[in-house]
Amino acid sequence: MKIYLAGPDVFLPDAVEIGKRKVAICAAHGVSGLYPLDNAIDVSAGEVSLDIFKGNQAMMDAADAIIANLTPFRGPGADAGTAYELGYMAARGKLCLGYSNDPTIYAERVRRFTEVSSQDGHLVDAEKLTVEDFGLSDNLMLMHALDLHGCRLVTPRQAPADIWHDLTAFEACVRLAAERVASR
User: Fold this and answer.
1) I need a surface site. Which of 2, 63, 115, 127 has the fewest CB within 10 A?
2) Model confidence pLDDT, tens digit, residues 54-111
3) Dihedral, 12, 17, 18, 22 alpha carbons, nearest 10
4) For strand 117-119 and strand 95-99, is the pairing parallel, antiparallel, or unpaired?
């Protein structure tokens, strides 16, 4: 089984090392991890962003599954690129797994970034925009893509000390994928 390893990990200062750790965890469980930074991109080419997109899409097309790191990134929710990749894989009928190292419910996380109040029976932010409040870890589209195309979001009981380097929840997803392979 080939698993596309999506997430904002690619933006970390030690992104290559994180990728190597994730790929090694996959190999230890008998599956193959495809890390986006393993794409060979010619940074001197004029269309670097498009080449990255095409390389990642080719990796996703070659993969049987995705493990999406949905730990909130630069705000209360998941990384936008990772959300796209999860949707892409769900639409292609591939096995979808995901994890977040922040177990807090989405509506609670929004409170970290803006004032939230109750108005006419629902939550609104400082701009009076509705705050999604279904008791889920992130946007309902992401959470139910996992539910319907793989398994529920994997989260720790409490956030680890280092949410970007703790791979316990990631490894739990790898085990779930490996179990799917073994049960076939």
Assistant:
1) 127
2) 999 999 999 999 999 999 999 999 999 999 999 999 999 999 999 999 999 999 999 9
3) 160
4) unpaired
